[in-house]
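Section handout, structural biology tutorial.
Before the tutorial, make sure you can parse a SMILES string by hand: atoms, branches in parentheses, ring closures as digits. In the record below the ligand is zinc ion, and the chain has 325 residues. In the tutorial you will relate the predicted structure tokens back to the input. Do not try to memorize them.
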Amino acid sequence: MTNFFTGIEITKRHVNFFLADSSYRIKGTHRLSLPAHMHAAKFIEELENGFYETMKRSSVPADRVAAISVSVPGTLNHKSGTVINSTVMPWLQGLNIKEELGTRLKKLIIPDTEANVRTFIEHKLGSAARYNNFIQILLLESWISAGIYINNSLLRSKHGSAHELGHVIVEPHGRKCSCSQRGCLEEYASSDAVIRYYLKHRKHASKSTVVLNDLLRLAGSSDFAALNAFYKMGNYLGIALINIINIVKPDAVIFSGDFSKGLNFFLPAVKSTIDFRSFYDSANNIAYQKSTLGNDAVKLGLVHLAKDTYTNAYNLKVCDDIFII
Ligand SMILES: [Zn+2]
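Predicted structure of the complex:
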């Protein structure tokens, strides 16, 4: 009997369910909207109901699903399946998704961070397929994360994650961050920050009416304030990146997430900052690319991760003994 595999993508506002057959072909999808306030027990119940709803809509019996992968917007203990921290969904902290959902659904649950899911699939199918040393940067609305892949291995810290690029300090006495520290990259290089830079130049513009797409459009028509805002953001991103580049010397930096749509506007600042501050001459040889998987990255990553882990085809080596602090 052909097995099926399910991927569950957890985001700040939605949970997306994907059902795929053993050839990774998507056979069903379902989306849940999340309320502004939630608690862990209710959330697990919602995941269980969402899984069964996906199966019902796809007319596939639930017992045909061999494994379920789950992506989490935060830090996760990869082995135990417990969420360590999530600045975008704080109530996820401490929730053992592997155990709680596994007990309810009686399935193999494979949790990982969204950044690692994207890094895994970027190396298997995307822009990073040709690189064994690369950094994947995930740029979302108000969230920045990364996956680090070195010596053909996904870098994990003691707890299983090594990607809190958004909380690398770029201004020691800077703005207060949601993580309670000051001067984190997320405060200076997220789309919220770019809008803030723009509004400083355009004082007549109302904060509530300017969104990232407006700035992309304005930058595309050579609006000085918009271009300047992207340049400033790129400079901060370059400062954060150079600290990692000086340690791991990647061959490529891959940009993904909605905010990577602005790559053409902020990449010049990223590159010039890195070139100017790099310890290595070879930093000039880094390839900077946008993810070719676009909005399908997480969907593909999850169903491939579920099947490849279940069938032991996921041979991605993991560095458990290297830390970036
Ligand atoms: Zn922070």
